[in-house]
Amino acid sequence: MKTFRLAAVAAVAAATLVTAAGCSVARNQESVGQYVDGSVVTTEIKAKLVNDPVTSAANINVKTIDGGVVQLSGFAKSQREKDRAGQIASSVKGVTEVRNSLIVKP
């Protein structure tokens, strides 16, 4: 089941990358290289969240901003899950800062 979820997360990330890359550059937000790097970081974090027994990737949104800053948002079932999601995000290569805005909602 985890393999299926991992494949689904990867497919969604790939589709997002393909459809949004042109828009991002057109609005001068970031270069294609920065966008691709951010998408790779986001996908790797989501994959690790899926495979972690403490975190629920379905309730955690991940966005990588300029310079490797990662924004976590959504809901965590416990403070432990929130903390673990932050640890996972900060462990990924290319992440320079984690902004953990998860809301604990038991």
Q: How does this model look, in words?
A:
With 106 residues, the protein is an alpha/beta fold. It has a single domain (2-104), classed as GMP Synthetase, Chain A, domain 3. The chain is 54% helix and 19% strand. It is built from three helices and four strands. It has helices at residues 2-26, 32-51, 79-90, and strands at 60-65, 69-76, 97-100, 103-104. Strands 1, 2, 3 and 4 form a four-stranded mixed beta sheet that branches. The two termini are 24 Å apart.
Quick recap:
The chain is an alpha/beta fold. It has 3 helices and 4 strands; from the N terminus they run ααββαββ.
Spell out the blueprint of helices and strands:
Elements: H1 2-26, H2 32-51, E1 60-65, E2 69-76, H3 79-90, E3 97-100, E4 103-104
Parallel strand pairs: 2-3, 2-4
Antiparallel strand pairs: 1-2
Principal-axis shape equals globular
- Range of strand content: 15-25%
The overall number of domains is 1
The CATH class assignment is Alpha Beta
Tell me the CATH topology: GMP Synthetase, Chain A, domain 3
Class from helix and strand fractions:
alpha/beta
**Architecture, according to CATH?**
2-Layer Sandwich
Q: How helical, in percent, are the residues?
A: 40-55%
